[in-house]
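Practice problem: predict the structure.
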Amino acid sequence: MNKSMKQLTQFAACAIAALSVVACSSEDSAQQDNAKQNTAKGVATFDGSQPGNDTRALTRTTATYTLGGDAKVFWSSADKIFVQDDASTFHQSNAANLYNPSNKAKAIFSLASGSFTLNNREVRYTGENGTDANTVTIATTQTQTTANDFSHLGTSGDCGTATATGSNGNYTFTLNHKASYLCFVPRCMNTDLGPNIKLTKIKVTADQPIAGKYDFSTGSLTQKAGETYSNTVTLNTSDFSLNTTTSSLATNGAYMVVAPGTYNFTITYTIKDPTTNVEGDIVKTVASYNCQEGKINDITANLTPKDYSNEFAKNYYMWDAQTNYWSGHNWKDSDPWQPVAPNQPNNNYPKPGDPRYKSTVAEYNGTTPTPYTATQSCANLPTVNAMLWFAMKGDPHWDDSLWSLMGHLGKGGMWIKKRAKIISDEGISSQIFDEKYPDPDNSNVLTDWRYKTTWPWTKFENHNISSVSTLNAVSDYFFLPTIGFYDNAQLYSIGVKGLYWSSTSSPWYSSGGYALGVQEEMTVVAPSYRTWGFQVQPALFQ
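Answer:
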């Protein structure tokens, strides 16, 4: 065996990914000498640097990256490379020996076997956990724990090739990266909501495979016969902040490895409000997106759900109260009392004598049923009969989409036919709509439920709920979000129930008023305590 075969062979790479060349400093040179001294005497060294062209290549943890600009990247101490010896056999190196732990742009890789005397030796990097020079696995599930951090890419499918130049154990090489990389920088334009929500994951679905076990024997990623490939990659993020109205890498820059190609992407962003415990998806699409080898592809997204604060925040009322539940102290007033999320109790709820307190007119005394129509805040709301038409004949469609209210995330609501559409479809008059609804025990009997002293509870529950995906004529429907209610100053059922007062009091239920309720599994009309803070929304039911 010749001397060179007995020697440990050592490679060093200065891996700097940028649009422009980043030079190695004098400090790096000193560290290089120290690194060489840590190997056996007489072994060869290989030095390299990333080219200064538009490759924007990546390895592990980022030091700097600007959107649409340069990236400076580093080796990981766990990285290994494969090197082709004189006999064209690939050998795996030992783990990287970093020049300088505080500046990982350079590393030395040593090999304990193989003969390396010839020029132009092929180098391959197949990922931090790579065990085969000819195989690269792009993971279908990737995880990033810190914003604007490339460090997970080595375990997610990052790969590259190089031609090492030199001879007799003295070589240099420049690594050219062969995967493609997506950089996500979402934002939230609602400055009340942004500080309170987090990005938990990003799922990318393409119209062709983007992940799996690829053949790398040619130095490019190609599909293997007999392997199963995925059109989807999910990137789990560690509750990245969305408290930014602009694209900000420092706030939530998230990176994903995919196979090169041109794709139509469906991108699902999952966001969560830890306070309300509401979590849901916002879906975006990107068409004909060209993901080239070694390139970072920036993808921005506006993750701002529909906000209902203006329409709903000040419209919680006790039944037919003179003013709203938090009048003078709503969430945007100078002295707010209004809880904006669950589990925020206080003692400032409406009490007797307060204009915010319920109407006590014609409350049932236990003997004489007395119907009463609201005259104050609930005066212009639908009657209980109209609410029954909405709930039972309104063809409800559940919509699980996200929305926001008072700086917090909510989810879900019901689409219901508009008044005019129900009247037309049912062949009834406007007067009947307001004054009668069929008796569930005899549909031929039209009954004025304002005067009934019994209530067929479950028979006024509609469980025939369709999905919003089947709703075609949206213009014929209106939306009722599940924005909860107040009781004793606490906010309940955000994202679970939406409760909307009618103009009708219960003629038999003590201190009761009729309300329409919506939740995922049903719409319902029932009497409720007048002291509960439900929505007053006359315009919605027109």
